[in-house]
Amino acid sequence: MIVAENLVKEFRLTERKPGLVGSLSTLFTREHRIVRAVDGVSFTIPAGSKTAYIGANGAGKSTTIKMLTGIMTPTGGRCLVRGIEPYRHRQANARSIGVVFGQRSQLWWDLSVPDSFRILRRIYDVPDPVYRRNLALYRDLLDIDALGTTPVRQLSLGQRMRAEIAASLLHDPAVVFWDEPTIGLDMVLKDAVRHLVNHVHRELGTTVVLTSHDIADIAAICDSALVVDRGRVVHQGSIRDLLRTAERRSVVFDHRGGPDPGHACARIEQELPGVSASPAEDGRIKVDYPVDRFTSRQVLAFLLERFDLADCYAPEPDLEDVLRRIYAGGSRSPLAAGVAGPGQGGAA
Amino acid sequence: MTRTVWRHVRLAFFLGGVGLHRLSAYRVDFVLGAGAFLVRVGLQTAVVGLVFRQVPAVGGWTYHEVLFLLGFSLLPRGLDHLFTDQLWELGRKLVQRGEFYRYLVRPVNPLFSLLSERFFHPDGLGELAVGAVLVGWSGNELGLRPTPLQWAVVPLLVLCGALIHTSVKLLFASLSFWTVTSLPSMYAASQVSEFAAYPLDIYHPSLRFLLTWVLPFAFTSYVPCVYLLTGATGLVVWLPLVTAGAFVLALTVWRRGVNAYEMTGS
User: What Å distances lie between residue A184 and A92, A148, A151, A168, A176, CA to CA?
Assistant: First the structure.
């Protein structure tokens, strides 16, 4: 279980003034600006969950992950990973976690991937059967053997990321923290990585904490979401609950006979105020309605009454849209009370 | 505690093996590094030879005594070089590029983890070999007959000297935790250490003081050599204390630096 209690991280930035005179004056004056990257965040991530840690750039995602992995010490509050304060007991914490920072390698740049793995095996005291089982798994799922004896520094980004991901799982960690783990991976490899993490989670009950700009990663891997905005938790719960906070939902339908799509749209918009309708591909019509004014039942009833429906479906609300609204500071607070974990109190 | 130490010892052997393996994989690097180093020592010896063509003694030191000192200074330097070269990377770029984090997410002591990435740096082997040859040859020419006690403390003198080199390097490399890169100050300190290859007697007292009590490189070569050549104990009794002091100070700065580390970027 991962707990954050009123976690705060502040950075001190030296103010630099532009120009030569400015940089000279920076030498002699000490003007600092305090930037609060994480602002009293509290949350609980249950063991065995797959949680997406979501936030816009600068929301404090990476900073929080760096505190949870023991890389940085909080300015205030504390966090616990399996009962350990990571930055106080780095080595003990390191045994039970696996880490990937997509932008930064943790492999031995002048050694080959198999050599790196041999070192990791010693460093983590990985038992033989576990080591062999995991290598077989990486061979099957990530085609890790194809990387051969090329030194890591000569690998492409995609090849390196495959090795990084495998390396983070080699010692069967109880928790993995993956910060942008699918950078540089093509569709096939992304799928392989998703498959791998889901496999490991199913077999070992690994807790997964993931940040990604790739919404598809989040949807394919995670079952719950922790949304952070400007250093504070604004939503915690399942991805499903997050989607339910959408302000607008839509229905797409196909109809026989009746008015042409342009007329049909005009008619829907006229009779259902606040609703927008637009022609979609293949003569279908997409109806977009605000959930605070209409229920899906009302919209469907209206459509059934007016049109001869051939086909009709209601797509999931777009996670990206939901998040965009949260980042933009949308009107309706998505903080679903009761959905949140016990640690929610501090952030409310 | 004992188990942790034991584990690190076993790991050190394993990673030392990896370091040796790397030597064979990067043979050209090795040859180039060793070649460049031999040229440097050759030039140093030549300069010393030229000077002694003009004068019989410098600051009371004869030709062979100076060569003995030059050779001895390479031993602790080489021993340090063999195991701690990765500190240069710390000062140069590991903090700047946000790569230092990897030593904090491994279940191993971070300093050990850092150093182990470059165990058995080839240049260190060259320094040790050339240093031993120079010391042996010039000692023989001088007709040096060390007492059993002197024989016994030689490894300690070299080890303490190496630790002093390591401490100074660690201290200046650790400044990068606050300044992002500390290569210039590391480089300056390493330049100062070059002075320790020659008799302190030829320097201005201020420089002598600096080399003895501020950046105590004198204790890595001049002080032990005076003891080995003359048998006079003098400053050498301070060596363990100076070593311990330097090492503790460097470790303290390192620890604070690690705790102040702020991984840059996303």
Answer: 32, 19, 18, 17, 20
List the single residue in B7, B104, B266 with the smallest CB-CB distance to A70: B104
Do the Cβ atoms of A95 and B107 come within 8 Å?
yes
The predicted-structure confidence for A101-150, as pLDDT tens digits, reads as follows 988 888 998 899 999 999 999 999 999 999 999 999 999 998 888 888 89
Output the six-digit token pair for A129. Answer: 């059967």
pLDDT (tens digit, 9 = 90+) per residue, A6-44? 999 998 877 666 777 766 776 666 677 888 888 888 999
B110 and A CB contact within 8 Å: yes
Q: What is the ipTM of this complex?
A: 0.86
On chain A, the residues whose CB falls within 8 A of the CB of B22 are 110-111
- Contact pairs from chain A to chain B, CB under 8 Å: 77
Say what the pLDDT of residue B182 is.
93
Specify the CATH number of the domain A247-316: 3.30.70.920
CATH number for the domain formed by residue range(s) A46-243: 3.40.50.300
Nearest CA in chain A to B101: A71
B22 CB within 8 Å of a chain A CB: yes
φ, ψ dihedrals at A295, nearest 5°: -95, 165
- Residue of chain B minimizing CA distance to A61: B266
Answer whether A71 sits within 8 Å of B104, measured CB to CB: yes
Interchain contact A149–B (C-beta under 8 A)? no
> Domain segments of chain B: what residues?
2-260
Say whether pLDDT at A343 is over 60. no
pLDDT-above-90 percentage for chain A: 36
Report chain A residues whose CB lies below 8 A from the CB of B109: 91
Question: What are the tens digits of pLDDT across the range B31-70?
Answer: 887 788 888 888 988 999 999 998 888 888 999 999 999 9
Domain boundaries, chain A: 46-243, 247-316
Q: Is A7 on the interface with B (CB under 8 A)?
A: no
Cβ of B105 and A94 within 8 Å? yes
